[in-house]
Amino acid sequence: MSVTRDDLIDFVYDEARMLDEGRFDEWLDLWLPDGHYWMPLDWKQEDPVHVTSLMYEDIFMLKLRVERLNGARTFSQKPKSRCHHVLQRPFVDEMNEEEGCYVTTTSMHYVETRQDEQQLLALTARHELRQVDGRLRIANKRVDLLNCDAAFGNIQLLP
Amino acid sequence: MGRYTDNPEAVAGLFRGGEVHRDVYIDDEVYRLEMKHLFRNAWVFVGHDSQTPNKGDYFTTQVADQPVIMVRHSDGEIKVLYNRCPHKGTKIAIDRTGNTGKFFRCPYHAWSFKTDGCLLAIPLKKGYQDTGFDKTEGAKGMTAVGAVKNYRGFVFARLAEEGISFEEFFGESLSSLDNMIDRSPEGRLEVVGPPLRYMHKCNWKMLVENQTDTCHPMVAHESSAGTAVQIWKELGYTEDDPKPPAMEIIAPFMSPYEFFEEMGIRTWPNGHGHTGVTQSIHSKYSQIPGYWEAMVEGHGEEKAAQILGENRHNTVYFPNIMIKGPIQQLRVFIPLAADKTLVESYIYRPVGAPDELVARNAMYNRMINAPTSIVGHDDLEMYERAQEGLHADGNEWVNVQRLYTGEEDYDQEQVENGTTERQMRNQFHAWVKFMTWDMGKEPAREAAE
């Protein structure tokens, strides 16, 4: 089954919707087991490991992050945060049918709110996707915040 | 003038042994007095000299609320200058880092200054002839801070011209910095990348106190560390299975009270102190291949064993930094207002050690200290709730009494049970000392001149 550009674009939109609707188990299921969610700290950062990043999380850490959100003693989520993604149409940067590898780049505005506070982050998300057993999965995701070098308060959900 | 200005008795009365008055956290006048007295008379962290390796390299930052430039002068020494043009006040440098060459040039009217602050040139200088300009503040150039000390790469400043010496202020507490630096086989650290920057809507002292608060991790961080341990078990692993680095870092936060009691707390004079005298949450990190050999080559076996035998947890350098020796990390709690604190978290590379150490330092930093950290989230939540809760008029006092004997001599180094709040009391003792150091003495000094 071949993957179309629309499949890739729909995938990115669907992922954002899952995050906005808090369907985190479904979201985790999108990931390949050795994938990483990377949010660099520095503008145009190249090394996720030997320099501080905001996030560089494997599936274990992402699962922990998501399970924590629903914990009985997760004090910073009482009350809970809500988030909202507004996407520009994703660019399809790579379509390697032979190996089943695809790359998209998407500009987004991400809004996160809790109690009386609301913050807006502008970001670029780069998805590396793979087709495995006929299904698109996330191999890696990189999220570059436009103001990555700014001082933030808590960012608790997933841009 | 309010209740506390020029009133050392009132300021001293805010700390009464086992309790602290809420005004130290929420009162704007107390905050302004901290900037004027405490942060002026104490030695305050500025930066690391590897941030400005070459002549003309500079780094802009703040010493409390004061904008400063740390710069490598033409003689190779580090200078710390107030970041304002003596002419109109314009900040001379606005980017975080850069190289200014042999001189600074103000972007407004092109006054220029040597990198030690001396006035170099003013365009159309004849306009100042016979105006008495040479007797003005402006003619002195950019003002330097009162004193600077570069201790093995770590740069500290005292804003006041005169006062306590660096050696007397820090004393034996420098052993923690030494241990962090000596973990480099070459005895040298280098800064790695930019710091995490995390804004807190709370008083800076809440963050400093939390560094030696050993009774909060298993409570406040149950949602992150406790859940991690639980997921680990669900995956079929036991306590004794080798853990991935992330688990090595996060699981010890759930250690029981007994662990923290036994780890011990040491306090030093002038408000410094550390947790983890005998052991710490960093003690059981796995060995990194090649590191021990490099340490033995650099320091000899005996000294290498002694350096790595220390696993101090958090060392607080009063007033506003914390370091972690075992993972080469420094956090600075920059007070911006009574209820606003910027936390910057740096990591360093132990020069000559395998890269895996830096990878662990970076991992710890993002997992624990980032605005995106699931551990940081709960800490910030506690601080901000306290900042709001302290406005409740039913009780004006904060309790720091755990294991208080009533007869503590903070001028003596002391090791105690790891759950004591003695280090918090030690900090408030030093707080009173440096707040009242020159309070009410300014008019007398002017009269003497």
Nearest-integer average pLDDT of chain A? 97
Estimate the mean pLDDT confidence of chain B.
96
CATH class of chain A: Alpha Beta
Shape of chain B: globular
Number of domains of chain B: 2
Instruction: Quickly give the structural class of chain A.
Output: alpha+beta
The residue fraction in helices of chain A comes out at 10-25%
Q: Approximately how much helix is present in the residues of chain B? A: 25-40%
Uncertain ranges of chain A: none
Oligomer: heterodimer
**General shape of chain A:** globular
CATH fold annotation of the largest domain in chain B: Naphthalene 1,2-dioxygenase Alpha Subunit, Chain A, domain 1
Kindly state the number of beta strands of chain A. 7
Largest sheet of chain B: 9 strands, antiparallel
Describe this structure as you would to a colleague:
With 159 residues, chain A is α+β, with helices and mostly antiparallel strands. Chain A has helices spanning 5-20, 24-28, 59-69, and strands at 31-40, 53-57, 82-87, 91-96, 101-114, 117-132, 135-145. Chain A has one domain (5-145): Nuclear Transport Factor 2, Chain: A, CATH 3.10.450.50. Chain A is built from three helices and seven strands. In chain A, strands 1, 2, 3, 4, 5, 6 and 7 form a seven-stranded mixed β-sheet that branches. In chain A, a hairpin with a 2-residue loop joins strand 5 (101-114) and strand 6 (117-132). Chain B has 449 residues and is an alpha+beta fold. Chain B folds into two domains: 45-151, Rieske Iron-sulfur Protein (3-layer Sandwich); 192-435, Naphthalene 1,2-dioxygenase Alpha Subunit, Chain A, domain 1 (Alpha-Beta Complex), CATH 3.90.380.10. Helices cover 32% and strands 21% of the residues of chain B. Chain B is built from 16 helices and 21 strands. Chain B has helices spanning 8-12, 23-26, 28-41, 166-170, 174-182, 204-210, 217-220, 222-234, 245-250, 257-263, 291-299, 301-309, 355-369, 374-389, 422-435, 442-448, and strands at residues 19-21, 44-48, 57-63, 66-72, 78-82, 97-99, 103-105, 112-114, 119-121, 147-151, 154-158, 189-191, 196-200, 265-267, 273-275, 315-317, 321-324, 329-337, 340-350, 397-399, 414-416. In chain B, strands 12, 13, 14, 15, 16, 17, 18, 19 and 21 form a nine-stranded antiparallel β-sheet that branches. In chain B, strands 5-4-3-6 form a four-stranded antiparallel β-sheet, with no helix packed on it. A three-stranded antiparallel β-sheet of chain B has the order 2-11-10. The relative contact order of chain B is 0.16. Residues 444-449 of chain B have low confidence and may be disordered.
